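Input (structure):
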């Protein structure tokens, strides 16, 4: 499968600079919190300049945007899809992404392997298989997604729109949001950040490798609960560290931490 800056049809796609985003699970009901609507509002607040397509089978309008009933209804190409639909609907959405030739998907929803039950593990296996067979990369599930001030990507309200030199990756969504906010209050700003959750597809090694090559990033920080491929992680981290500082906070070191990590992202805490 292609890597972060994936090579497809002789053109390179950078996941931190999508030209169009579809958000699945957007509701125009103002009666309560809706994760899809929150992603829409945050992207607008962050100044995202690309095309935005809210998705909901019911259709309608929201914040001046047409709500499309499905990806196939969108006449233009879609680079990036944010999934805020219930876990049970994600395999169908992933198949629609393959049919639409979407390049990148982020699955915000929880309820997969981190739940510890057989249904959640099977759902994660299904979406991974569909993505692999359809040559789609994805982040998550159970993560907040991508942040890049230069392109107007964000996942939480109130994150700084000023670009900096630090790249940050985290399995924890609340952790990365806190680091960005606390950093900006101290004059520390970020080039890119990602909350990648369960790391069912793209993982810590992918992002350290990317940030190691990224000219906009001069320092790499990370909060990691578990490593998918130890040999690759050591290799890419050593390579990145020859060019810029790499600072890693390892979660799950204590017994209580190990239990927390297992229930949070389903990671098996190692040394």
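Output (sequence):
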């Amino acid at each position: 499968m292609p890597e972060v800056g994936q090579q497809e049809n002789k053109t390179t796609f950078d996941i931190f600079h999508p030209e169009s985003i579809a958000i699945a699970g957007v509701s125009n009901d103002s009666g309560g919190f809706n994760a899809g609507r929150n992603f829409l509002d945050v992207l607008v607040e962050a100044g995202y300049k690309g095309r935005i397509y809210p998705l909901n089978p019911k259709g309608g309008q929201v914040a001046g945007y047409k709500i499309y009933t499905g990806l196939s209804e969108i006449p233009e190409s879609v680079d990036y899809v944010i999934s805020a639909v219930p876990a049970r609907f994600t395999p169908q959405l992933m198949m629609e992404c393959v049919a639409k030739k979407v390049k990148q998907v982020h699955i915000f929803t929880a309820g997969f392997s981190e739940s510890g039950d057989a249904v959640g593990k099977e759902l994660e296996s299904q979406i991974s298989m569909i993505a692999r067979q359809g040559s789609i990369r994805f982040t998550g599930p159970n993560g907040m997604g991508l942040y890049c001030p230069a392109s107007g990507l964000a996942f939480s309200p109130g994150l700084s729109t000023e670009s900096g030199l630090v790249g940050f990756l985290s399995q924890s969504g609340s952790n990365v949001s806190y680091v960005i906010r606390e950093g900006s209050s101290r004059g520390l700003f970020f080039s890119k950040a990602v909350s990648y959750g369960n790391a069912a597809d793209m993982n810590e090694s992918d992002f350290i490798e990317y940030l190691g090559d990224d000219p906009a990033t001069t320092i790499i920080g990370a909060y990691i609960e578990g490593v998918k491929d130890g040999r690759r992680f050591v290799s890419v981290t050593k390579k990145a560290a020859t060019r810029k500082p790499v600072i890693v906070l390892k979660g799950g070191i204590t017994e209580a931490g190990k239990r927390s990590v297992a229930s949070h992202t389903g990671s098996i805490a190692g040394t």
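Notes: The mean pLDDT is 90. The chain has two domains: 5-139, 145-264.
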